[in-house]
Amino acid sequence: MSVLFAVVFYVAALCLVGGVGYRIYDYARTPAPLVIPTTPAPTTKGGVALRITREVVFFESLFKGSLWTWGFAMLFHGGLALVLMRHLRYFTEPVWGWVDLVQPFGIYAGMVMAVGLLGLWGRRLFVDRVRYISTPSDHLMLALLILIAISGLSMKFLDHVDIIGVKAFFLGLMAFDWQPLPSTNGLLYVHLSLVATLMIIFPFSKLLHAPGLFFSPTRVMPDNPREKRHIAPWAAKMEVEK
Amino acid sequence: MAAEITAPPYRVIPIIPSIKPGAMEGLKPFVASDKIQEALGFPGELVEDWEERAIAKMGELLKKYRSLKVYLDACVHCGACSDKCHYFIGTQDPKNMPVARQDLLRSVYRRYFTIPGKLFPKLVGARDLTREVLDEWYSYYHQCSECRRCSVFCPYGIDTAEVTMAAREILDSVGYGQKYANEIIGKVHKIGNNLGLPGPALTDTLEGLEEDVKEDTGIDIRFPLDVKGAEVLLITPSADFFAEPHIDSLVGYAKVFHAAGISWTLSSKASEGGNFGLFIGSYDQLRQIALRIREAALELGVKRIVVGECGHAWRVAYSFWNTLTGIGDGADPNDRFAIQLQKQLDQRYKQPSHICEVTWDLIQKQAITLDPEANDHYVVTFHDSCNVARASRMGDMPGGQFEIPRNIIRAAANKFVDMNEATIMEKTFCCGGGGGLLTDDLMDLRVKGALPRMEALKEVVEKDGVNFMAAICAICKTQFTKVLPYYGFNMRMIGGVHQLVSNAIRLGDK
């Protein structure tokens, strides 16, 4: 079992890093030939950085668009962020100070995250417009995330696992010095399998919205077309041909 | 098509409408004839191997446009955009929800360009490109006015206009173009403007206008054409030359230049500000049409280029002219193409400038004087045109595109109120006729799409007695002139900002 999970996590990590890395490279090399920020837009790069920060941290546009979705999305993503921070303790030795501080919040964050996900799923089920646009994969993605949250929380509240053993396993993976995965109960295996699944499908799914935002021309382009000539390489060629 | 077109009922409170699947299914604007298509270098009719060629074209566009690539990947189906489109609100057809409209193309993208779509099409909502899908594209990508309202609310800034443009480009490339837009582009190339007004007719029209204005004001206001060495080249939508109420704004521009003593000229070569290349998503057409303005500017030796009241024309001018033609500033010193023109232009002024920027600047410098009492018979409101509001700017500050026209209106009229804040500025609703849909064969859609704007207008009509809605877009003006009566309003309620300026400006005795 330990060997199996070790292999699975190497594959998953490779998939995640390689897949997302490739996507980023692909987005970055594709030109944006015209200046198309959604205006009013900042006119400088600094302003754009602020706009993107507001989008990433506060979901500014979504706030304007739908308060309910914004609320649930904030709960989920905020919760997820804290949970991820809490989990850093499995990958660092000694554990960083701020990760230590986050620990107690991480547990509540797990619950908050699950509430957010249920809320988002509720919209998908009960709002006719959102139900109409939902594909099976949209539902499955939510199911996957909720199961990850529930299996994780269960190990805290129902059936403890040997977390020191888990940590040793992951530190071992990172050092290429394999350690056994504690064979306690099924929950841990479920949790880890689901997380590996998520890592593998990330670069092939709508989870690309995360890197996508940083390449969205309507958000990341400064509004300065009169002040600076912007031309894509393939468009510049048209001028030479003339 | 419905035999009789009626406006949908107003919503009691602006509630989000429930969906009515299939409400607008099969609606199709006229397809372009082989002659129209071939004049633009597109296949005359649907080609044999359309499926292959459509997919190849999609692949090409995915390499050329980062917007398309990112937007087809990033959508999470959150639904924030789902109630934001005026065509959805007016028709309740779920495929008019921005996300569903994108999905018509996205589903095919997934099938042919992504691994999950190739392996598990059902699971991720991927579809083969069948004739039904192609027809659905034609129908629903001609029910989008590319107004970008959805992009304001999308957490990733996904702009359905970019997707619609790509879809229309694919349709054109397989010989399935729209008559209205493509016919007009043909006219620009052949005659010089969208309305097909030839040079001599333009000269006549302008001479007639000079006589009319002289009769009205007793003052010789010029409407110069092809004057070499004029300071300003004015590029305006050709509707301004003869359509009502557009022409009243043209008179307004002329009076502003006259009163400020600025020499100006129109160009018979570039007698059109509109650029329908934008609507069909073709960079090549966009560029070819814009190049006429570059050529006119170089020939006439003008120092400034000013754009009249036209929404999408201002988007193209403000956002794209520098890219397409070098009209602007900040070109690389080695960029000989752009430098040639940028040296000629007077860079103390913004290039290009909107006529509203020019007028507001002159008002502030007290180079012109307005008497707002002249418009006391009006209670004015302002309709922000989508392309100006969400795809351009005026002045130095973001949001100047909202402030400057309003400042001019306040200077030209004493009574001004804004409509509901959820329907103005960056959240403004499209008039319902933009993006290449301003054609009689889409009248039903145009009337329905105007619903949210008409609701907001009704509110200020009842509350504040508004009787004049100013706009700075030729399409908005034409669309509202047609559509207002369906909602029980007088068609003459719509007019231009410079129509108000024209009424209020002090001429002669300064």
Major sheet details of chain A: none
- In what range is the share of β-strand residues of chain B? under 5%
* Strands in their spatial order, largest beta sheet of chain B: 2-1-3-4
DSSP summary: helix tally of chain A: 12
Give helix and strand order of chain B, one letter per element, not per position. HHHHHHHHHHHHEHEHEHHEHEHHHHEHEH
Give a description of the structure.
The complex is a heterodimer of chains A (about 240) and B (about 500). Chain A is built from twelve helices and no strands. With about 240 residues, chain A is mainly alpha-helical. Chain A has one domain (about 1-20, about 60-215): Fumarate Reductase Cytochrome B subunit. Chain A is globular. Chain B is mainly α and about 500 residues long. Helix content of chain B is about 50%, strand content about 5%. In chain B, the strands form two sheets. Chain B has a four-stranded parallel sheet. Chain B has a three-stranded parallel sheet with strand order 5-6-7, with helices on both faces. In chain B, helix 14 (about 285-300) packs across helix 15. The longest helix of chain B has 19 residues, at about 200-215. Chain B is globular. The N and C termini of chain B lie far apart (about 55 Å). The mean pLDDT of chain B is about 95. The interface between A and B is large, with 68 and 79 residues.
Strands, helices and their partners?
The complex is a heterodimer of chains A (242) and B (510).
Chain A: H1 2-29, H2 45-58, H3 60-65, H4 67-87, H5 97-126, H6 128-133, H7 136-157, H8 163-175, H9 186-201, H10 209-213, H11 217-220, H12 233-241
Chain B: H1 34-39, H2 50-64, H3 66-74, H4 86-91, H5 98-113, H6 115-119, H7 121-124, H8 131-140, H9 149-153, H10 160-173, H11 179-191, H12 199-217, E1 232-235, H13 246-260, E2 264-265, H14 283-300, E3 304-307, H15 311-325, H16 336-344, E4 353-354, H17 355-364, E5 380-382, H18 386-391, H19 400-412, H20 443-449, H21 451-464, E6 468-471, H22 474-483, E7 494-496, H23 497-504
